[in-house]
Amino acid sequence: MNIKILELGKNRARLTIHGEGHTFMNALTEEILKDPAVEVAKYLIKFQFSDPELLITTRGDRDPLEVIKDACTRLSGYCDDLLQSIPVE
Fold first, then answer.
1. What is the helix (H) or strand (E) element at residue 25, kind and residue range?
2. Where are the domains of the chain?
């Protein structure tokens, strides 16, 4: 996954995630919004085949990149749990 940071501040990050679409971005945005320190988390896909741009703002001392990493870790954990619950024949 290729990520390009467009803007990074104490409480704000704007980045693009190459090759991702609505499926991943919806899940990621929803997971980011579960963090109580997050004020805004949204994404935009300007054109059908363009890379999505993610914007996140936080309050307090919460680093927006750490919020994104934590949300991705939780999403990965959900997928691991699902795979483990599927019976193997």
1. helix 22-32
2. 3-85
